[in-house]
Amino acid sequence: MRENLSLKAFVVLMKASKSVEEMVRQDIKGYGVSITEFSILEALYHKGRLTVNQICEAVLIKSGSMTYVIKKLQEKGLLDREACAEDRRVIHVYLTTEGKKLMDDIFPKHQEAIENIFSVIDSDAKQSIISTLKHVGLQDKA
Asked: Is residue 8 part of a domain?
């Protein structure tokens, strides 16, 4: 039987994804926040003030659990939220000074951990992986 390269590529991608996810999970665990909390903080850190819906899109989390996590982060003093003046149904979320300080401290460490994970791959291979995965991921959008 001939080797099915598509199936093999899928299996290797899923195994690599699981492995990378576990390494990232271990890294983030050391910062005292969950993956979901870190994802929200990271989105706000890099994009600034966002609506709850924009955060949901950025971190791929359903809005029901998003409200709970945002409330927990607000209780920790890391972010705050306010209703939009034009549309009270829209809630804007932003990092507090404490949240910004935390991310200023932990994001460089997290970035270094990601660099270490991918240090086994040279720049050309990384560029190729990015291009290939974008091509695979965007095919349903065409």
From this structure: no
